[in-house]
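New here. Your pick:
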Amino acid sequence: MNFEGVDVTPELPDYGEIIEPMKGIHKWRNPNNGYTVYRLGHEANPIYTDQFLSEVRKGMSFLDFLREYLLVWRAFSGKPVYAEDWSPTFHISTEHIPYNPNLPIVRGWDFGLTPACVYTQLVEDMRLNILSELCEDSMGIEKFLVEADIHSRRLFPNAVSFFDVVDPPGFYRSDTDERSCVAIMSNDPYNLRPIPGVQNPVARRNAVIKFLQRTVKGKPAFFVDKRRCPMIVKGFDGGFHYTRNRGGQWREMWEKNEYSHPHEALQYICTRITDLGFHRSDEPLVMAQQTYFRKPKSTPVMV
């Protein structure tokens, strides 16, 4: 079953024989302690129709609704960073979002050993399409650049140009390497001209919220390709979240985890993309291309 674009199939253990005595009730035996467990889902109560749940949903946050009514605990612990502004049914495209080869692909980069690159495009009416993501684990910048370059050519072979907005610390040298991430990106064979995104977390979050809250003729100004951006979608659904401190208060900074890396890359894009002049006239775009863009090579990379 799907509700507002979120998978709400029962979360059941991987062990033991699971039976369903009646609709909405699952039974299994815990092999570790011998206990028999019953899971009672909303499907067991006939009043919990989709229409009824839709009305209930209007009076509470989506995360609380998932936990309290649908028992979807994979909605993650903590408070989602965009809890009140993100709507799965409104902001997610279940179909592939095509790119416009005549407009730049804007890439956002988050560095470290869990690097991420997010691919977006600002289209007509200042609408931002989130086209793809690339997330890796335990990978250095040089190998990740190779992967990102292959990914770019494979998905966007005819793109007029690429523009790169990066994690600001990428401009600084590390203690173990005299070269910064940006220096590596700027030299052969990539010759990129990245600019830093805004570092302030509040400004970054607000930049994303501005897109989430905008509509254009009743349609979202922020649209995510669900199939190609699974980590972005799961992050919006709660993986990218705040946790509580020991005193029980919400921390001011979100938790660093596998979802925060692509989301921070996305934030960097949102802090800069509206300043690039893509939407105003041809002249700013030409100037931007001369300063920052790299035309992809005509020979594709085979993968």
Remarks:
- The two ends are 35 Å apart (CA to CA).
- The chain has two domains: 2-75, 92-292.
